[in-house]
Amino acid sequence: MFGKRKSINDVFTPRSSDVNKNMYIVRESLEKELIRSIRGSMHSFLFGESGNGKSWLYKRVFSEHEIDYVVANCASASIKKSIVDEIYSVCVKNGSVQKSSYSETKKAGIKAVGTAELAHQGNYEIKQEDKLIESFKSLSSNTNSKPVVIVFDNVETIFKNEDLMSELCDIIILLDDSRYSQYNVKFLIVGVPNQVLEYFSSAKNPASVGNRIEEISRVAGLFPGQVQTFSEKGFQDLLRVNIGDTQLKRLAQHIFDITLGVPQRLHEYCEGLSYLIEDNRWEYKPSMLDLADQNWLKKGLRENYSVLEKHLNADETVSGRRNQVIYALGKISNHQVNTTIVGEQIAKEFPNNAPESNSGIGQVLSHLAKGEKPVLKKVAHSKSYTLTDPRYLMCIRIMLHKDDETEIVRKKMFKLN
Ligand SMILES: Nc1ncnc2c1ncn2[C@@H]1O[C@H](COP(=O)(O)OP(=O)(O)OP(=O)(O)O)[C@@H](O)[C@H]1O
Ligand SMILES: [Mg+2]
User: Is residue 54 located within the same domain as residue 168?
Assistant: First the structure.
């Protein structure tokens, strides 16, 4: 532990779009898969839940391998009502509205693009196809004809927009045409929904689009070992917190349990905890975790908390079956649950108070799947359920506590106002 202590905001950066080299956790297999796909002959598709690190992943990989790229934002395409217009914006224009894309361009090492190409634009409307060529030409001249990637980030914002998705398909097909392919442009599509590839495969020209796109494995949360490395880097190395290895290990386990390893959540939680540690003259105490949990819950899980609260029984009796079910849900890491799985978990957690049969469990599960804000949703054609939002799992893990002796499940009282 040498050097000066860094500032908390330089260490934990929950929403930073720039990759923080000091805190980046290497994801070897995903990184390898991505670079191989980018260098391969197909376009690539990167997906995973929001906050899991898709954007950091491609930025890191592109910078490591010196791949030039520009980021077209699908949300902007949605506003412009045209993908080509968004591509044109990030490749050719550099007006003030395009600052963020422009800075992405600079970051990727491409020279700033001139405006000469725009000189005649006011005189007549360039046809969309010409606009696309114009965009690629401009990109290519700035990268000395090196291959270049156009990233379509946040594809979830246009996924339900038939016109834009269909335009995207058309462009992907056009890219095979030698008039376009000569520019060495490749697409990386990035977004939350995992049905995108399915969409491309069933889109109007199935053989064409689906076959041109390769899917990278899902970007999920970090593993416990990676969360441990993250905590070491952040607390011990950069913030120079006085915390021994054993305590750090326990802390990392706690952080993993409640954040599920979601990188954005890790940063949020650790940022909050760091302030508590700073207020205690940089001395860490395990007793700080309760307050850290509560602060974090207030920031991002308030709504989930109040929904769950309504589902929990008011009385804290052992027979509070509903509480047992919800507590058990918090202990299960399976993606899907059903009456049997929950029953087994209850038997394990409540050996002295588990009921003889699974009766009642199904009722609780189905109740959790009802209402305006359901916690669970039914999996089609099966008796299983999944959580509607992983934040419910984070929340259950923070708010419910089981007394090991009496096996009573209690809700931790948090004041959310
Ligand atoms: N490999 C990583 N190591 C450490 N922190 C990471 C890593 N990847 C992401 N993060 C953290 O998580 C945050 C969210 O990551 P990122 O923006 O890449 O997620 P995303 O999957 O693109 O989310 P969205 O779908 O909302 O765009 C980052 O701002 C950063 O703080
Ligand atoms: Mg992103």
Answer: yes
